[in-house]
Structure formats: structure tokens, C-alpha cells
Amino acid sequence: MMELPATRAGHIGRALSATAILLFLAMPIVIILVTSFGADGIGTFPPKEYSTRWYEQMAAPGGNWATSIALSSLIAALTTVFSLILGVTAATALARGRLPLHAAVYGLVLAPLLIPQVVIALGLFLFFEPAGMLGSPLAIALGHTVLAAPVAVLIMISTLRGIDERLEDAAASMGASRMTIARRITFPLATPGLIAAAVFSFITSFDEFFIAQFMSTPDTRTLPVLVFNALQFDVDPTVTAVSAVLIALAILALALVALVRKLGGNRNGQGVLPVEPLS
């Protein structure tokens, strides 16, 4: 099929259309960022005066916001560890193993991504409430792992399938054990995927609301729960500062993942077999 030559007007029209779409999508983020520096107490846009008072209030030691941020960070860190353990184990079995009912196991692992989060939250509440673990950071982290682990599994499966299995076969033919192959070849090559899985697991836990809402107590409120309460029962402009920080963290996390993947791709292109004996 003959393609029509692109005209200068067509290029300009597509560029303007793409720019307008991007500006429309970025507009809420820009409004939040600008409003977070407003000095008034009702969060107007555009602000009449500018100040950093809401950022100072958010970071005030011993305040509700600082306590919630610390709690969410702890829970997200625990979730990341649990998700990586489960993700690496399940991804290795699914990508390299010969499991019976492979498709059914794969679907079961990814099922939490399809089930509404409020259903999962209710189930976890009914499970942990009799054990008296509501409000426990460990219990909330285990609940978040239900949502974060499938994301880690997807990333690790993609990473492991991108590694040339002939490198592992060559190491095995030279007498290397499975543990040595994993430690010296598989995991070094899978480092970009591991970092990406850790970043997305952390973000998934840090931003999760339903499970934290069902399992929190008045003394243990994660950051999303505190933001929800602040918006529902009061007008607190500190929420705009918190949102701006979360936006910045998300951008930094995505930039980190992109950088690690780029560096990992360059490294893999320069040869990956270690020069030291594997045995």
C-alpha cells in the first residue's frame, strides 16, 4: 500500500495536538504543585501569596503527617522485602520451571490484580481481626504484599525470560552448582529487574488505601488514610504539599528504574560472563 507523503502542515498539526494532550494531562499536577506553595488556609489557585508553611507543617517532628509518612515508609519497606522474596521465587518457577497446570498457577498468582481491592481488604480484615493484629505494621505489610507481589512477579518473569539461558547452561557444563549459577550469573543479570520490582512494590504499598483503611486503627494511620480523612472531614492545605512530594517521589522512582535498565542493558551488551572460576 502506497503511503501518502507527510506534509509540513500535518507535522505541525500532530505536534500541536500532542502538546495540547500532554498539557491537559499534566494540568492537575501543575495545579497541585502551585497550590502547595500557597500561604492561605483554604488552598486557592492561583495563590495570592506564596509560602512553604505547608511543607514545614508536613515535616514537623511528632506531627500527624510526619508520623504517618514514617509508618507508611516502614510498611512499604517490609512489603518490598516480602514481595521480592515471593516474586523471585514464583517468577523463577514460572519462567524456568516445568510446572503442571502452568497456566492455572500463573493465573492464580496474578489474580489479586483482577480482584477489586476492597474485596481483598475485607478478606484480610476478617483474617487478621480474630488474631488481634489490626493496626500492626507487619499485618498491613503482609496485606500490601498480596497486591505488590504479583507486580514483582510480572517484572521478574519478563527479566528472567530476557536472560540468555545458554549462559547458565555453559556455567553448569563447567561444574557450577545451581546456587553458584544464580549468585554469579542469574542475579547479576537480573539486577535491573530486581530494582524495578523493588521500586514498584514500594510505590504500590506506599499509595495503597483500601487495605490500610480496613486494617488501621486510630493510632496507626498510613499516609493515604490520613490524606483521605483530611479531605473528608476538613480542608487541610497540607494535603497539597504531601501530594507534591508524592509526585516528586514517583518521578524520581521512574527515572531511577529507567536509568538502571539503561545501565543494565549497556552492561549486558559488553559481555556478562565472569572471568573468575565459577566452581
UniProtKB/TrEMBL annotation:
Q: Where is it predominantly found?
A: membrane
| Keywords, sorted A to Z | Cell inner membrane, Cell membrane, Membrane, Transmembrane, Transmembrane helix, Transport
Q: Which family does it belong to?
A: Belongs to the binding-protein-dependent transport system permease family.
- State if ATP-binding is listed as a keyword: no
Topology in the lipid bilayer is annotated as: Multi-pass membrane protein
Q: Which SUPFAM superfamilies has this protein been placed in?
A: MetI-like (SSF161098)
Could you tell me where this protein is found in the cell? Cell inner membrane; Cell membrane
**Listed Gene3D superfamilies:** MetI-like (1.10.3720.10)
Specify the taxonomic lineage. Bacteria, Bacillati, Actinomycetota, Actinomycetes, Kitasatosporales
Q: Which residues form the ABC transmembrane type-1 domain?
A: 69-258
Organism the protein comes from:
Streptomyces bullii
Membrane-spanning segments: 21-45, 65-91, 103-128, 134-157, 185-206, 239-260
For this entry, the protein name equals: ABC transporter permease
Q: Which InterPro entries match?
A: MetI-like (IPR000515), MetI-like_sf (IPR035906)
